[in-house]
Amino acid sequence: MQLFITLKNIGIIDIPVNYNFYIQSAIFRLLAEKNADFAEHLHSVADGEKTKYKFFTFGSLIGKNHFHDKKLYFEGNIKLEIRSVSDEFIEMLADALTSGSPFCIGKHSLTAESVEKKEYTITDSLIKIRTLSPIVSKTQTEDNKAVYYSPHDVMFIKRIRETFTNKYTVFSGKSPQSGIDILPVSAGKKIVTKYKDTWITAYHGLFEVCGDAEYLQFLYDVGLGVKTSQGFGMYDAIS
Prior knowledge:
Elements: E1 2-7, E2 12-16, H1 20-34, H2 36-45, E3 56-58, E4 65-68, E5 71-75, E6 78-84, H3 87-98, E7 103-105, E8 108-110, E9 112-118, E10 126-131, E11 138-140, E12 146-148, H4 154-172, E13 181-195, E14 198-210, H5 213-222, E15 235-238
Antiparallel strand pairs: 1-6, 1-9, 2-5, 3-6, 4-5, 7-8, 10-14, 10-15, 11-12, 13-14
Helix pairs in contact: 1-2, 1-3
């Protein structure tokens, strides 16, 4: 399910260019207000063994802005899309925002001017996608170093497949009957983002993704690749 939020902003506010952590924190703050146990489970426990999956993702902040001195200065309203495979997750966020709870991005507390829920349905087994937030594909070495892969690396595709299988298995309690595949059509810009104290490498681009429609729907709701709950891997299906 999708949640489209328009945040009311009068004047100009400054937001750090690496704002993913602030958005994720705002989401958890709203959830905690509605259901503290749910938020704590999602934040500290979630699901999975080695990797903790939270099964949501969000896109970039959309609005009139300019960049200066490592900050984005937004003028006027700001739009944000959040997705999750959990309807309960989306309903809680929507309820908190429509009740007047602020969406706090760093030092700024913004209220929602509009909140809209939507359900986009995928019925095809092959879709062409355009990234809305860049995709992260990586592995962790034995000495705990991150190795990031570009769309031109065969390991990029391998890790995307593996991540889907792991996430779907944890969420549904059963292994998928078949896998998914992803083919870079036009690998776009490399994005390096700082999340807290970690630098993350991700990639925008156009891709073709194939698999069972149920699995493609799952990926649409939770995002492609890893670190999706940190604001990576969201995409639009295009013709």
